[in-house]
């Protein structure tokens, strides 16, 4: 975790959810119509037991916009869940830098620059495009994946989004495969790697290629040591 300066932010006042906002079950709160939540991939920073930044790739569910609140679903036993259960504070980041995602996925968060959050006790990634500081409103751990309802208290736009790139999505999918080694069949994981690697070779730049190599080496090591 590398610490740099601070920045300005926009605080979000408490407000009623928009008409199409969904409750924890994914149902429209103003009718009986069921809707499919949007899942946006990014990085969650939470406070570890020493007050440092723990970084983890994660995809929160939201009905409309992130600043209206979202639902996190970390697995039981994860450090992110333990941190949020302990202090109830975190920051979700949208980004276009594949290497940041890869470093967070393999536990190299110390290489990522962070700054102090403005509205909560927490950490914001300097290299993110947008950041959403949040407080936990509700937490349910009765299922295999916890359900954490989050209220956004401040937002930041750190820099413009850099544009779409197919290699970035390939890196993201490989990061997800890394997190599913204990769940998915080894053969299925190996089959998924080839088509993704083609996208990186055809469309990736230096950071996408570095991110891919970092994740692939980590994944192959895990596969070799798993039963």
Short overview:
The chain is an alpha+beta fold and 227 residues long. It has two domains: 38-157, Roll (Pnp Oxidase, Chain A), CATH 2.30.110; 166-225, Methane Monooxygenase Hydroxylase, Chain G, domain 1 (Up-down Bundle).
Topology:
Layout: E1 2-3, E2 10-11, E3 38-39, E4 42-47, E5 53-58, E6 61-62, E7 70-72, H1 79-87, E8 89-94, H2 98-105, E9 113-116, E10 123-125, E11 130-140, E12 147-157, H3 166-178, H4 186-203, H5 206-225
Parallel strand pairs: 1-9
Antiparallel strand pairs: 2-12, 3-6, 4-5, 4-8, 7-12, 8-11, 9-10, 11-12
Helix pairs in contact: 2-3, 2-5, 3-4, 3-5, 4-5
For the record, the CATH architecture of the largest domain stands as: Roll
The CATH superfamily of the largest domain appears as: Electron Transport, Fmn-binding Protein, Chain A
**Helicity range of the residues?**
25-40%
Average predicted local confidence, pLDDT: 88
User: What string, H for helix and E for strand, traces the elements in order?
Assistant: EEEEEEEHEHEEEEHHH
């Amino acid at each position: 975790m590398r610490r740099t300066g601070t920045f300005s932010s926009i605080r979000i006042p408490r407000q009623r959810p928009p008409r199409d906002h969904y409750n924890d079950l994914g149902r429209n709160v103003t009718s009986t119509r069921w809707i499919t939540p949007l899942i946006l991939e990014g990085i969650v920073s939470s406070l570890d037991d020493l007050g440092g930044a723990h970084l983890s790739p994660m995809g929160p569910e939201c009905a409309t916009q992130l600043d209206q609140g979202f639902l996190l679903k970390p697995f039981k036993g994860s450090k992110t869940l333990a941190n949020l259960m302990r202090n109830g504070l975190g920051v979700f980041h949208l980004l276009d830098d594949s290497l940041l995602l890869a470093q967070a996925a393999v536990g190299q968060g110390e290489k990522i620059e962070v700054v102090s959050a403005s509205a909560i006790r927490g950490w914001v990634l300097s290299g993110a495009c947008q950041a959403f500081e949040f407080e936990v409103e509700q937490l349910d751990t009765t299922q295999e994946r916890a359900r954490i309802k989050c209220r956004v208290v401040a937002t930041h736009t750190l820099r413009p989004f850099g544009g779409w790139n197919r290699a970035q999505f390939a890196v993201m999918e490989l990061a997800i495969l890394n997190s599913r080694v204990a769940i998915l069949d080894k053969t299925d994981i190996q089959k998924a790697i080839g088509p993704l690697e083609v996208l990186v070779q055809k469309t990736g730049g230096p950071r996408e290629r570095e991110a891919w190599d970092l994740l692939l080496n980590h994944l192959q090591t895990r596969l070799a040591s798993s039963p």
